Queue: 2 jobs
Job 1
Amino acid sequence: MGIVIYHNPACGTSRNTLAMIRQSGETPEVIEYLKSPPSRTTLGGLLEAMGLSPRELLRRKGTPYAELSLDNPDLTDDALIDAMMAHPVLINRPIVITPKGAKLCRPSEAVLDILPNPDIGPFTKEDGEVIIDEKGKRVD
């Protein structure tokens, strides 16, 4: 099994996560989920693999979350998944699947916890934040 990333190239967190995967020596399968959204079955499997509820995967910022009243606590998991199926932008990202597990990688350095080779050398995010210093130590 290789590595899969559900990616949005317009998202800095997603770009940083993809860069860390590649810097680890892996060539992931990149799924631009806004162009090719996961099926309902696949999304359910991802939620289960990550141990998240649909509500925990909902993206609020820059989405129709508020206008769809998705903050309503009475909405069922099925209703929230229906909303994500109708509006894939509601699916938070990036989601990464590796042989070591599946994870919503927010912040992007969370990907290091599931990479087969997390020793990627120095890494600085696009915004200048140092994640791994020149000595190979993770900066907290």
Note: The first helix runs from residue 12 to 23.
Job 2
Amino acid sequence: MRYLAANKLVNFAWFQSIWFLAILGQDKALPLLALLFIFHFSLIPKPLTELKIILFGISLGILVDGSMTYFGIFMFESESLLIPVWLIALWAGLSGTLRHSLNYFAGKPVLTALAGGIGAALSYIAGMKLGAVSFPLGITTTFLVIFICWSIVFPTLFHVSQRSRRSSIA
């Protein structure tokens, strides 16, 4: 039991490190972010399953945040085709918590929807306050859009994570 709790704590600290590095360092932090992902994959028992979940999270992230950027909800300083690479790393990091430190939410869709909506909106606002993103439509409108979007996105991530867990042997 202690081993599981320690792993969850390490995974939580790992993601918080990714969040702060990505938000504060953005593209300059990419080498350190890569090291954190190597560390993550060295600790997990089913790296192929984890990779599938992370790739799905990245794909969903590019779709979601790319759409938000395209429709003028988000604006980033860096010029990129879809979304900044550091933001892709954030999506990968979040996806790397689904089977670990955040697995408490698995199988609880209503709680997951609420937590996703509130947590993501507050996270994006914190990122805005730290200068990583701007909200052309203002904080209130952006908060509502993120809340609605993430009340769907977060349960979707968990659904895919749970399906991957059940169907994967690697």
Note: The mean pLDDT is 92.
